[in-house]
Amino acid sequence: MRFIRAATFKERLEVPVIAVNELDNVKRALKVLNEGRADLVAVGRGLIADPDWAIKVREGRFGEIVKCVCCGEKCFGNMRKGIPVECSQWE
Predict the structure, then answer these.
(1) CA–CA separation, 83 and 52 (whole Å)
(2) Which residues of 6-15 are buried (b: 16+ CB within 10 A; e: fewer)?
(3) Mind spelling out the 3-state secondary structure of 20-88?
(4) Which residues contact 49 (CB under 8 A, 6 or more apart)?
(5) pLDDT in tens, 23-35
(6) d(CA 49, CA 33)
(7) 3-class DSSP assignment, residue 14
(8) Full-model pTM
(9) In principle, which of 34, 40, 54, 83 could form an S-S bond with 18, CB 3.0–4.6 Å?
């Protein structure tokens, strides 16, 4: 699969661009935004692991963020079973 960087679209389009792919990593997300490569970042599973992710980032509380470990057990696993999405990190 070929990945196209958000910056490629940002250079050519006059609409807001959202970047994806492991952007629940705060340093990575901030780098993308600060370098102007995207207007927004999609956090995805990081927001399941820690619904307060954005608040903690805004307040500089990076060490308090509950991190997604990409296990897929209770997020995608539960979704496939048709039961409420949870996170293994909540335990």
Answers:
(1) 22
(2) beeebeeeee
(3) CCCCCCHHHHHHHHHCCCCCEECCCHHHHHCCCHHHHHHCCCHHHCCCCCCCCCCCHHHHHHCCCCCCH
(4) 24, 66, 67, 68, 69, 87, 89, 90
(5) 999 999 999 999 9
(6) 22
(7) coil
(8) 0.78
(9) 40
